[in-house]
Amino acid sequence: GGEYALRESVCKAHLQSYLREFPGIQEWHDWVNRRLDSDGFLINPLGRKKYFYGPPSHARLRAGVAFLPQSLVADIITEAMLYLTPILADIGDTYIALQIHDALVVETPEEKAEEVAEVVRRGMEMTVPITDIHGETRELLVPAEAKIGRNWGEV
């Protein structure tokens, strides 16, 4: 890939413009920073706790901001795998072959593909309680989709 040369002032101006357009992002970053300063850890909506050591820094904030959504996705995919493994075994000749980021690759005979795709889609969909920075909790449906193909290039 090529290199891009942008002045730091231009980058900062774009960032400030973005944060003005979407003020909730800055509020969320501030909330994460306050939690890290006061508690030293964050807990994701499914209960995973992570400690963040060291003095306040941009790197610590960036790690904290990334932890919440990334750990939630990892926990959802883990829950789905644990839930689906015995169900797929009962279908027969069907198993989870790979996990790639937020996706599962499932192998099954072609005649079972439609049924298995729907079982996997439903098994990966999850409703998660999300508490916002103001302490209000609501349910968030994390949707899932399933695709069928004979090889990776077809999906």
Short summary:
By secondary structure, the protein is α+β, with helices and mostly antiparallel strands.
- Separation, N- and C-terminal Cα atoms: 27 Å
Main sheet attributes: strand count, strand direction, barrel closure: 2 strands, antiparallel
SS-derived structural category: alpha+beta
Overall residue-averaged pLDDT value: 94
**Helix fraction by DSSP (H/I, runs of at least 4):** 40-55%
Q: Which strand-content bin applies to the residues?
A: 15-25%
Output the radius of gyration: 20 Å
Strand order of the largest sheet: 1-2
The general outline is elongated
The helix-strand sequence is HHEEHEEHEE
SS elements, strand count: 6
Q: Report the uncertain regions.
A: none
Number of helices: 4
Structure overview:
49% of the residues lie in helices and 19% in strands. The chain is α+β, with helices and mostly antiparallel strands. A two-stranded antiparallel ribbon has the order 1-2. It has a two-stranded antiparallel sheet with strand order 3-4. A two-stranded antiparallel sheet has the order 5-6. It is elongated. The mean pLDDT is 94.
